[in-house]
Amino acid sequence: MISTEGLSGLIMSMEELQDIPDSVLKDMLEAQADVIEPAQKRKGRDYGVHRTGVTLGSIKRDKPRRTKDGGVISISLQGRNARGNTNAEVAFINEFGKRGQPPRPFIRDATEENADKASDAAANVYGDWLDSKKL
Hints:
By secondary structure, the chain is mainly alpha-helical. The chain has helices at residues 14-19, 22-47, 54-57, 87-96, 106-113, 115-132; strands at 59-61, 65-67, 70-72, 75-77. It has six helices and four strands, in the order αααββββααα.
């Protein structure tokens, strides 16, 4: 499974993270996924990972959840293709290549290129929450 964990780009103390209501944390993680999930699909198309569309179409996010150090939302490749291979296997081969096929690191590149945008999206949600509390 290839996943992206959220909130790592925001510098917040553990106390600050604990004080964020679950609903706000969920919205922050969803805002990050709203940036990263489509970016991964776009970058996959840019790299040519779209012959059938199955692999890119399988990129889905799980439900956000709170963890002891903040929260996480996983974006992963789910299901199998018509040949019975998991979409995660296909993405792994695309990411790292194989003999005769150069790497096409669409997941890593998209995630790295959009990390600041994802952090900004979460920070905007957090800022809106602070504004609503007049903080």
